[in-house]
Amino acid sequence: MFSRLQKKMKKFILLFSLILAPASVYTEDFKTKLNLSPSSNSHKRFKREWIWNQMHIMEEINSPLPHHVGKITSSSRNKNAMYVLEGEYANSIFKVREDTGDVYAFERLDREKKSEYELTALFIDRTTNKSLEPPSRFIIKVYDVNDNVPVFVQKVFNGSVPEMSPVGTSVTKVTAVDADDPTVAGHATVIYQVIQGERYFTVDESGVISTATADLDRENQSTYEIVVKAKDSPGLHGGDSSTATVIITLSDINDNFPTFEQQSFHFKVFENVRVGSEVGKLKVQDSDDPQNRNTKYNFVRGDYRDTFEIIPNAFTNEGIIKPKKPLDYEKIKEYKFDIEATDPTVNMRFFKPGGTKSIATVTIEVLDVDEPPIFSQPSYVYKVKENYFTKNPLGTVLAVDPDAAKRKIRYTLRRSSPSGDYVKVSNSGDIFISKHLDREASAWHNLTVAAQEIMADSKLSDIESHTQVYIQVLDQNDNAPEFAYPYEPKVCENAAPGKVIIRISATDKDETLPGVNFKYSLTTEDSNFTLVDNHDNTANVTVKYGQFNRELVKIHYLPVIISDNGTPELSSTNTLSIGVCKCDEKGEFTFCEEANKQVGVSIQALVAIFICILTILVITLLIILRKRHKKELTVLRKSVAEIHEQLVTYDEEGGGEMDTTSYDVSVLNSVRKNGMNLESGPCLYAQVKKPTRNGNSGTGEMAFMIEVKKDEADNDGDLLPYDTLHIYGYEGAESIAESLSSLESGSSDSDIDYDFLNDWGPRFKMLAELYGLEPNEDFVY
Prior knowledge:
mainly beta; five-stranded mixed sheet; 45 strands; extended; Cadherin-like_sf; Catenin-bd_sf; protein phosphatase binding; cell-cell adhesion mediator activity
C-alpha cells in the first residue's frame, strides 16, 4: 500500500517538475519517454548544461536503505566522465553513482530535525580530474509525514472563573504543539477534547476552556480538576494523543445571606464597662469569602437601640456589641432587643432560597459594681478678695454615692497649687481660707478634692473620685505705683530752660485695668527741675532755670511722688539721681561722674557667704580632730609591750641544692638559753642552729646575740613595731671558702688563710679586710 502511494507521489513530482523546468530540459531521451516527436531542428547543437529533476524524499521511509532520491544528469556525452557530490552531508548521508548520477540516501531522514539539504554537483573527467561542467548547487527537500504526536506545552494548567458564571464563560486556554509540517494539510492539526470533567467544562478547537453549566457553586465545590486530550489528525500513527491536567478554581461572589448560628444570645456586663469596649459577639454564618461579606445588623424590636451599636467583623463572621453610652445598674438592670442580620449587597440574580434576613434575640444583663462617688459638678469656681479672711466657708463641694447603699462621703484635699496651707477642705466638703491671699503672689489657687465612701466598718473605700476647685483672688489696691525702671538721667551744665532730660513711667503690682491713671508730682517746687504730665501715664523731667555748676553740685536728687487713682488712692516717693555733666557745643556729654549708687549685698548673698564660711570651719575642725585621733593612736601603740615583731635570722648563705642539712627547723618556735624561755607575749623568736662539723650543738653565741637585740628593740621607743634582725653567721657546707663569719673565730675554721681574697679583685676588697682581722672579733649586722 505504501509503495503504491510512493510511486504515485514520484510520478506527480516528476510531472510537476517538468512543468516548471526550462525548455532545455526536454532532451530527446525525455521526449521519447513522454512520446514527444522531435522537432526539425533536432540535430542542432545545444550548449552543454546540467539536467536533472527537482529532488525530494519522504521522511521516515520504512523500506531498506539506501533510498533513491533522484538523478543528476549532464548534457555532455563524455563516457570518461563521472558524477561527484560535495557538501556537508555529501558522501555521508547522500551518495551518487559516478556513472549514472543516481543520488541515494543512506540514512532515514527526519524532517523535524532537518527539512532540506543543500549539495553541489560536479561532472569531472576521470583522467584529468577536471570539471567538464560548472559546479551546480541543488536542494533535496524532505517531505513531511504525520509522525508526531501533539504535546502540551505544560503538564498542568491553571484557570479561574467566578462561580455561577453563564454557560460559555471563558476559563483558560491550553496549548499543544505538533512538530509536523504545518504547511501540509492535516499534519499539524490538533484536536482538543475534555475527557474528564466534560459535564462542567468544554474546550474548543483553539484550546479555550469554557463553562458547560451555569450552576457552578463555590460553596459546594471550590476547585475542579479536569483532563484535556490533544489528538492528532489521522496519519502515520493513526492519530495518537497526549493529555494535560487543568485545575480550575471558582472565585467567590457575594451570593449568600448571613444567618445567626443561634436564635438567642445572653451576655453579662458590669455597669462600669468603658464606652466602646466589647460587650459580646453575635456569631453569624456566611459562606462567602470575607471580601464579599457585608453583614449589617439592625435593631428591629426593643428600646435602648441608642445605647448599643454592633460592629461587623467580616473575617470572623461576628458582630461586636459595644456600648455607646455609660451603663447604670441603678437605672437599668437589663437590656433586651431583637437583632436582624442581612447583606444588602447580595446579587439577587444568584439568590438562593432560604430567606434574605435572620433575626435573633439579644439579652444584656448589667451587673452592679461599687462605683466611686459622683460630684454634683465637674469643677467648682469661687472668688475671694485678696487680704480677706473669714471663718465662714468659702464654698462647699458635694458628691453622692451612686449605688443603692447611699453611703456617706468624706472629702480630702489631695493637691493644691500653689503649695501651702492657704486653703483647707473639711471632711464634709467645706472650703475654708486659712491665710490671707495675695493676688500679686498668685491670682488663682487650684485644688484637687477627693471624695471617698465611708464603709460600714467606718473605713474609707479604696476607690475615690476627684474634682477640681478653682479659687480666683480678686485684686485690691494695696500696692503703690513706682518707677518702671531704675533711671539714671544726666543733664548738661549749660542746659537751657525747658530742656527735656528724661521721660519717666510707672508700674503698679496691682491689676492694671483700663482707666488706671498715674499722677506725677514733686515734693517741693524749690528745684531746678519741673515735671510735665504727658497724660499717658508718663511724665517729662525738664530743666526749670538751667545754669548748673557741677563744681558745686555734681548730682541732684529729685524726689518724685507717683500716685494712682485706685480706692484707696496710694502713692510712693521715688528719687531720681540726676548727674551734671560737661557737654560740648552740640550738647553731647563729654565728662560725667556716675551717680552715687548704694553699694550693698543682698540677704541671699550674705546667707550664701555665711554657709561657705561655716562649711570651711567644719572641715577644718574635722581635720584637726582626725590628726589628734591619729596621735593618740600612735601613743597607744607605743604603750603596748610589743604589738608585732618579726625576727628573721640568716645563719648561713646557703650551699646550693646539695645543702639540705644547714638548718634545724625544729626549734623555730622557741629560743632557750640556760633553761630560760625567750618567747614573750605575742612575739615569735626563732633560733637557727648551725650544725657543727662534728655533729654537736652550737656554743650559744647566736642565742645570746638574739637576746641582746631583743632587749634593744624592746627599749627603743622610736623604732617601728616591726623589728628585723639580720645575722650572717654561716655561708654553707659546700662553700669553697668555708665560713666567712667571725662569730666562730674560736673554732678550728679560724686556721684558714683568707689572704687569697686579696687576689680576687676590688669586688672582694671589703671581704678581705673583714677576714683579715683578728679571729676573736665578731661582727653583727
